[in-house]
Design a protein that fits this description.
The chain has about 120 residues and is α+β, with helices and mostly antiparallel strands. The chain has a single domain, classed as Nucleotidyltransferase, domain 5 (2-Layer Sandwich). The protein is built from four helices and four strands; from the N terminus they run αβββααβα. Strands 3-2-1-4 form a four-stranded mixed beta sheet.
Length: about 120
């Protein structure tokens, strides 16, 4: 089991290392995916603070889209749209995408695509 955790941590470290080099002054769009929900937040690394967040835990998100669970691609798309709307309200257009240790596939990809369609640039 420790080998799996080590691989996950190494992958996460590689992704974060590349992001630090490429980020500049852009905010970081970080994604966390659990078995039941998906979460996204825009982080200002200079201040170490979360600027905007959205998740499939918010009842308004699921009810608006008519979803039963937060563990679907449709829920990830809804969260992507929501995070982009909230970022635009704060005046943020350009971000850098932090997938963490997750592969860019499935729900993570759906969230990223929906955020791009809603107006975020990355």
């Amino acid at each position: 089991m420790t080998k799996l955790k080590d691989r996950i941590e190494r992958r996460k470290g590689r992704v974060r290392g590349h992001l630090r080099l490429a980020a500049g002054d852009r905010k970081r769009l970080s994604v966390f995916r659990s078995s039941k929900h998906i979460y996204a937040q825009l982080i200002d690394d200079e201040e170490g603070a979360t600027v905007v967040s959205a998740s499939s835990l918010e009842k308004a998100t699921l009810e608006k889209e008519g979803l039963k669970t937060g563990a679907s691609v449709a829920a990830a798309k809804a969260v992507g749209k929501l995070i982009a709307e909230r970022a635009r309200e704060k005046g943020i257009k350009d971000v850098i995408f932090d997938r963490g240790s997750y592969l860019y596939h499935g729900r993570v990809k759906a969230l990223a695509d929906a955020a791009r369609e809603a107006g975020l640039n990355f």
